Amino acid sequence: KNEVEQSPQNLTAQEGEFITINCSYSVGISALHWLQQHPGGGIVSLFMLSSGKKKHGRLIATINIQEKHSSLHITASHPRDSAVYICAVRSYNTDKLIFGTGTRLQVFP
Amino acid sequence: KAGVTQTPRYLIKTRGQQVTLSCSPISGHRSVSWYQQTPGQGLQFLFEYFSETQRNKGNFPGRFSGRQFSNSRSEMNVSTLELGDSALYLCASSLGPAQGHQPQHFGDGTRLSIL
Known about the structure:
The complex is a heterodimer.
Chain A: E1 4-7, E2 10-14, E3 19-25, E4 29-37, E5 43-49, E6 52-56, E7 59-64, E8 69-74, E9 83-91, E10 97-99, E11 103-108
Chain B: E1 5-7, E2 10-13, E3 19-24, E4 31-38, E5 42-50, E6 53-57, E7 64-68, E8 74-78, E9 87-94, E10 105-106, E11 110-114
Parallel strand pairs in B: 2-11
Antiparallel strand pairs in B: 1-3, 3-8, 4-5, 4-9, 5-6, 7-8, 9-10, 9-11
């Protein structure tokens, strides 16, 4: 079983829909990251959080440390949000980043 | 402010050769981490350097090595290349050691193909 699990693996949405991507992890962590990767490879760090909730524009990230679970929400989705979203956790014990397998999101006009 | 710069962007090598990839971090950033991304294994941590010292290392064979220079630029080297080393190699920099509270800034990666 992977230490970081994401769901769903693939997600298709119509423009304007509310989107949720989930991340569950099994290790103790010092922080959780949400990353966005567009075709071509470049990765953008969206959020880094260790508790509670963060918001940036139409993106919201939440984390529940007790349940070892995080969600990334996209409100009013847009075709430019189409990308792979990756959850990564910083292991408290090893200090290494462990990555989920990513969620491929496609938003159609 | 310039972002993280990785060179070259694309590279084709043959089995048995060796390769060196370069990463220039954001100005002022002293930590550089390297990652390998393949379709089968996804993203995996290779190693992290801070102030010219390797702070952490992933589970990769000794053929994978790296170093960091006094100007924080970093290189990674892969010797005796294998077909399975074909991957996107990503570099990320942060101000301080890449612990939980340090956001990382990624480069666009070097896509390495082994023939």
